[in-house]
Amino acid sequence: MHVVKTIEHSDKDRFYAELADQLSGLLSGERDAIANASNLSALVFDLVPSLNWAGFYFLKGGDELVLGPFQGKVACVRIPVGKGVCGGAVAQARTLLVPDVHAFPGHIACDAASRSELVVPLVRDGRVLGVIDLDSPLPGRFDEDDQVGFERLAEIYLAASDI
Fold it and tell me: Where does the chain cross the membrane (predicted)?
């Protein structure tokens, strides 16, 4: 059984290094992509402050994201590639950090309480497989340190999972 350890939040570099270590331990020995996505979502939702949603969308059929494991309120089930922050991250094959979702053209409001969003694409061999999506009720919640930290968590997830 994996025991989640509380991590001090004041030093973001250290926070994300410790979070990455915990995630590596949590996913060790398990290759199932859904099980690993479920545990990553739970770990992040438990330890990362000021989130109201943390989870996955997986690319299906090349043109649509479908809801995967998550923590938070009920969510949009299907998102077309190119629509909203998640679909935009897939279309551009890059992380999107949005300080104010209300200022993002075409934002899809699954939870009206969300004010900022960070979406990290899951890319293997140049192909986008899905995204890790994080929402916060705080405007400007995410910064470049969060982006780098979550891009590292995405790498760990991909390396540990048969996806």
Answer: none
**Which CATH number fits the domain 12-160, given the four candidates 1.10.760.10, 3.20.20.70, 3.10.290.10, 3.30.450.40?**
3.30.450.40
Q: Tell me the residue type at 144.
A: E
In this structure, what token pair is assigned to residue 139? Answer: 């405007």
Cβ 28 vs Cβ 161: under 8 Å: no
Where do the structural domains in the chain lie, given as residue ranges?
Answer: 12-160
pLDDT tens for each residue of the chain, 163 residues long? 555 666 667 789 999 999 999 999 999 999 999 999 999 999 999 999 999 999 999 999 989 999 999 999 999 999 999 999 999 999 999 999 999 998 887 777 777 789 999 999 999 999 999 999 999 999 999 999 999 999 999 999 999 999 8
Distance CA 142, CA 131 (A): 16
What single letter denotes the amino acid at residue 103?
A: A
Per DSSP, helices labelled H in 48-112 are 84-92
